[in-house]
Design goal:
This protein is an alpha+beta fold. The protein folds into 3 domains: about 5-115, no CATH class; about 145-230, no CATH class; about 235-350, 2-Layer Sandwich (D-amino Acid Aminotransferase, Chain A, domain 1), CATH 3.30.470.20. About 30% of the residues lie in helices and about 30% in strands. The strands form 4 sheets. The chain has a 6-stranded antiparallel sheet with strand order 4-9-5-6-7-8. Strands 10, 11, 12, 13, 14 and 15 form a 6-stranded antiparallel sheet that branches. α2 (about 65-75) packs across α3 (about 95-110) and α3 packs antiparallel against α4 (about 120-125). The protein is globular, with a radius of gyration of 20 Å. The two termini are about 15 Å apart.
Length: about 350
Amino acid sequence: MTDSSRWVNRPVQLGLVGNLENRRIRDFCSRWQALGQPTPTLIDYQDLPESTPRVDVLRIDSPGENVALSTQLIELGGGPKKAPLEHGEVAYLREFHLGFCALLERIRAWGLPAFNAPDEIAVMFDKWQSHQRFVSAGVSRPPASLAPASFVEWQQQRADHGRIFLKPLHGSSGSGVCALRWTRTQQQLQSPLRIVGGRLFNSLHVQKYETWAQIEFILARLLPQGMIEETWIPKLSLPDGAVDVRVLVIAGAARHHVVRQSRSPMTNLHLGNRRADSNGLDAPLEAAFRLAEQAAACFGNSLYAGVDVLLDQRGRVYIGEINAFGDLLPGLISRDEDAYTAIARAHLGI
């Protein structure tokens, strides 16, 4: 984590790396300047300078929500030039990740301090590497393994009945996540995916697929891109659905949080799920906060991270995901600060 003490009481020239049209950039600029700091230097992912920018510190933001950048990253990661990627399509996940890691390495080579270190951002975006780091540190996680690279291999090794999550190694925001259960006579895959014209697309609603032909269609396209197979932890259930918790850890402390509730296995709020009332969850939430802090501590050169914590039916807690860009939490206040203000103040030491 960067040493913020030397910035106290003097202007800090911040470099913001991201998609410059994105609300993340706009909103963080606003919060930074509201603290009396100079206008940040904006650095576009699509036009990274060769020489080191003249800034004091970097904040590296999400590369998402920009089709042109996605195409560039896919090519950089070994995929086709000008990949025919339609809006919302789930494809070339491995190549996108490799391309993003290449950009992160270019940023790392500048030798500048950063809110979150580029190499740690890369690990946070690899579910298997993150899982191994948590297990090594004794942080509670659902048992997991690397999934086979093809549907045929997966079929050959699957048991007669089961209940698992299959998650893309490099996906985010629930993209491509599959909750799969089956017996000898029935099968069901739930995922925020649509099948359109022989392609897979993100959906804002969780879909159900109940034939092996449909399931094979989906997994035959996702497994070769890399997936992690994770034990399905039945979540704590309340009257309006099951819940988990997104916790924003800043400078080692659990701060902003939201209890997410859903009647499907996916609780991501953009899928039409709701923010639940946390009344009566004091003990599970306290356990979730401590576990989120332990998970964030596995990334000691990152000032903040969004951590998804699973609560099981006995109130036990497990790390679901960690997200280097999990601070987009509009409307959430902790200690009279929104998330971006809290991150900025934590770095400035004020």
